[in-house]
Amino acid sequence: MVDDTTVETVTRPQIHIQNAVKSFSGRVVVDVDELTLGDHPIEGLIGPNGAGKTTLMRMIMHSTPLDRGTITLSNANGASDVVISDLPTYWMAPHGLVKSNQVIMDFDKLTILDSILLAVAAAKYEHPHRMFDEPQVYNDAEERLHQYMEYFDLGDPYRFAGSAGEKKLLDIIRCLLLDPKFLMLDEPTAGLPEDVTDKVMQIIRDLAASGTSVVIVEHDLNVIWNLSDDVHFMAEGSVLMHGSPEEIRDNKTVIEKYLGEGHV
Ligand SMILES: Nc1ncnc2c1ncn2[C@@H]1O[C@H](COP(=O)(O)OP(=O)(O)O)[C@@H](O)[C@H]1O
Ligand SMILES: [Mg+2]
Predict the structure, then answer these.
(1) Is the shortest distance between the CB of 64 and ligand 1 below 6 Å?
(2) CA distances from 148 to 41, 83, 116, 141, 164 (A)
(3) What is the pLDDT of residues 134-160, one digit of tens each?
(4) DSSP for residue 110
């Protein structure tokens, strides 16, 4: 018998941010009183350049330390809450909290295959001279790795990434291979051709449908309107409003004020 309550009882991981503040050189760039991410499968985080979106996500990963405040991860399925703002960045990925990079992190000296393999190398193999000799690292991830390479038409795995867009894509694939339960994507489609953007959006939808919480920062608002169930609007370090894509989109005063008429 099909149990139709299953869908209702799936709980997604959530992130709760309280009084989180970050300043650089005495200037406050993030000041978020109260924010929950992960109430909806896919949430958009939008706002003008310099609003603090990247900094806020880096604070969640603790790759930017907070001046003050608390960030908590509520895990799905009854696991107890964890105050992640007390934990080091390396704790995050093995516990399902993963973020892609806005700025392209390229490994010019690694082939496409090696660059992706970095994500699946267990900590004990994270010595470059050892990990690529470890057949186990490769074998465990081989099938999924090749699925992604095929899906994205990456071709010869032993060549080097050719374009900025391709390097961006490798970063996204590394995130996917980490089996994220809470995935934050910082402008994932910037620099990607339209057909690849569509493929990335489809993967994000599938991932969210399987229970992963996704937060996406994106400059291309069409991606946000298409993908998000809920949108947070951030400006000058604070989250000013949230609502359905339609609500945010219809709030022309705010959008025009911050993003310019062309974006609405
Ligand atoms: N490491 C840093 N040192 C100094 N200023 C920074 C640093 N990182 C970010 N900022 C500043 O913080 C503000 C917010 O930046 P950011 O979080 O990148 O915004 P967004 O991602 O919304 O465009 C910007 O004014 C930026 O210049
Ligand atoms: Mg940014």
Answers:
(1) no
(2) 22, 33, 10, 11, 18
(3) 666 667 678 888 899 999 999 888 888
(4) S
| CA 239 to ligand 2 center in whole angstroms | 15
Mean pLDDT by 10 residues, the chain (264 residues): 49 94 97 97 94 97 97 82 94 93 77 83 54 62 88 90 87 92 94 93 96 94 93 94 91 68 50
In Å, what is the CA distance from 143 to each residue of 146, 150, 177, 199? 5, 11, 11, 19
Helices and strands in the chain, H and E counts: 11, 10
CA 67 to centroid of ligand 1, rounded, Å: 15
Burial group, residue 231, by CB count within 10 angstroms (0-12, 13-18, 19+): buried
Pairwise CA distance, residues 214 & 201, whole Å = 11
**Domains with residue ranges and CATH for the chain:** 4-94+176-259 (3.40.50.300)
CA-nearest residue for atom 26, ligand 1, is 50
CA of 237 to the centre of ligand 1 (A): 10
Residues 6+ positions from 90 with CB-CB distance below 8 Å? 123
**Cβ(192) – ligand 1 distance below 6 Å:** no
Q: What is the pLDDT of residues 96-108, one digit of tens each?
A: 999 998 877 667 7
- What residues does the ion ligand 2 have nearby, CB within 5 Å? 53-54, 102
- Provide the Cα torsion 48, 54, 56, 58; round to 10°: 180
Tokens standing for 62?
A: 């603790």
